[in-house]
């Protein structure tokens, strides 16, 4: 936050230097064109005198009045203080010109303080209007800069919020996935299965992927499919030969990127609600392909009709939320159940 504050201060200082220098040069050039004899020293001194109070007036109106009253919707008090401030700044400006600037080049009787305070018409014409004109341009530009800053800040906050939510979703998903996998290994260990050591080795590969790739924004599709193969191998150790019927059709660009754990979660979901809740042979089909500018991942699993077919657990809800955070509305998630087959299809933009 300090870096952003320092950046704002530096940019504001640069803008003020550029804006007020340009305004002074413009006013000087305009006076040069209005006088045949060119610009005299007294005109430059007058311009500097007015220029100083334009800077003071504009910054006071924007930084104090707008920030503390207009922004807080205290419009009546803002209007009243604006009128008073313009009058006071104009009077001080005229006193500065008459008693400090003019003695350098004019040897004439000075206006009295009473005349300075009461000659409203002259104050408005020669002092208030120049302050207002400079302040109006300055404040308009400052509002544009402020709007841009607030928009950038809002976008940054939304991005940070999305990243925090994604990390939170992944932290929910990883324990959910690990709980199911460790439960599988525990079942194998109870029966003193020779497959226990192999399952631990495969789990090690999966954990390596989750720990070192799961925190990244994107991973190669080939990496995700590789860890899916490890997971399928791990799950297959639980069942007798012929218990699972798994088929895969893969057609994809090797450079395609996807969010990590996106497809793995769906595969884990298919095993949990398919083979995990069935005593018959369970079929699982995985298809990865391209559809124009989109990558398509389809997975389906069979289930027994009398089993609880509610697949809407942590996994799918988590996946849908991640998809929305990654792709906003530029994705498709289709879930269907028909003839004891549960299908999920995800279509996301191709990222390389």
Question: Could you describe the 3D structure shown?
Answer:
This is GHKL domain-containing protein. Residues 165-241 form the Signal transduction histidine kinase internal region domain. The chain has helices at residues 2-34, 41-70, 75-101, 113-118, 120-190, 195-213, 221-236, 262-273, 314-327; strands at residues 219-220, 244-250, 257-258, 282-291, 294-302, 332-338, 341-349. The chain has 352 residues and is of the alpha+beta class. Strands 2-4-5-7-6 form a 5-stranded mixed sheet, covered by helices on one side. Strands 1-3 form a two-stranded antiparallel ribbon. α2 (41-70) packs across α5 and α7 packs parallel to α8 (262-273). It is rod-shaped, with a radius of gyration of 36 Å. The mean pLDDT is 79.
In short:
GO terms for molecular function: phosphorelay sensor kinase activity. The protein has 352 residues and is α+β, with helices and mostly antiparallel strands. It has helices at 2-34, 41-70, 75-101, 113-118, 120-190, 195-213, 221-236, 262-273, 314-327, and strands at 219-220, 244-250, 257-258, 282-291, 294-302, 332-338, 341-349.
What's the CATH H-level superfamily name of the largest domain? Histidine kinase-like ATPase, C-terminal domain
Beta-strand residue percentage = 5-15%
H/E series, N to C?
A: HHHHHHEHEEHEEHEE
Number of domains: 2
By CATH reckoning, the class of the largest domain would read Alpha Beta
Helix fraction?
55-70%
Average pLDDT reading: 79
* Intertermini distance: 33 Å
Radius of gyration, taken over Cα atoms and rounded to an integer in Å: 36 Å
Low-confidence stretches: none
Main sheet characteristics:
5 strands, mixed
Strand order of the largest sheet: 2-4-5-7-6
The structural class is: alpha+beta
**What is the CATH architecture annotation of the largest domain?**
2-Layer Sandwich
- Specify the overall morphology: rod-shaped
Organism: Chryseobacterium shigense
GO molecular function: phosphorelay sensor kinase activity
Pfam families: His_kinase
Domain Signal transduction histidine kinase internal region: 165-241
